[in-house]
Amino acid sequence: MKKLLALLLSLTLCLGLLAACGQQEADPDPSASQTEGELEKVVFTEDVRGYHWAPAYLAESLGYFEEEGLDVSFETIKGGDATNPVLSGDAQFCLKGIETALMVNEAGQGCKIVLSATQKYPYQLIGCGPEYTTIDSLKGGLVAGGLSTNSGPYSFAMACLNNAGLTPGTDVEISTMASAGYAAAIANGELQGAVSTNPWSAKKLLDQGGVVIIDGTDSEVIKGIIGSDSYELFTVITSDALIESNPELVQKAVNAMTKALKWMESATPEEIAEQLQTIFECTPEELLYDAQYDKEHEMANYTGYHTDSGFEAGLTLTKLAGGITSDLTADQIYDETFLDKAWETIGQ
To answer: CA nearest 320: which of 138, 98, 165?
Structure first.
């Protein structure tokens, strides 16, 4: 827990760093250089490009951001945390989990979730071979927990160990690692367990001989850990400073993503995968697999709103993960007034 809190408190020392490949420095005030008729430049940051943030990517590929007068780019932060540029004003939105909003606010940094993209828990803790089939079998081993220590996968790994009475860092080590590196690490005997970061990641782990130890996608299993089977994990976050200084920009972005939610609800997995292909570098097979899984398991949240039970579950899991110590309120991490206005405009 000390490491997590120290990381969050160090955010102010790291502000302004954008480390994504090929990125350009974002204008901290996009409206300042905008002239009439030009699109307003907006940057979304991300730790990784993940299917479950589909509403943001679809808003771009379907032209909804442009309809709202926005020129949006997505910057994948390599070797850093996607939250930092948003808090510094170098970017306007980040694609992160609810745990991030909770930890950042407890650490004294002001941010708000303006849209929740999912409604069910997406992760599994998977043993990397037939000798790793229980949580106890991971003792003395190493578990991969996603890209950063304040990410959803890392928090899930921490929560699973703490819930089972194991001490992270003592009984089991948790490392940060991109899912693309799992296969090689398993083959080299470096990993004993890993958290699947998306449906395709889980499939690849199981194809490689992995065994599901804790299935967070199973409603009863996750309910037993965090007290709820609803969990709005994947979110779009902006800073309190941007909401205060440029609420019109926030409204435009939320309008576009709300249009994408409405389109996504009636679209087929094939249509969704096709639209996302322009944003993702992965294979069509992977995108279609994720889209089909999403539809079959009702993962997507087509309203964008959170639920009370989902928020309480977020508090429980983030505490289990050691990310927070206090009981924050929903008002401290959500601002859904932009969603209200968006749905009033486009209709449900």
So the answer is: 165
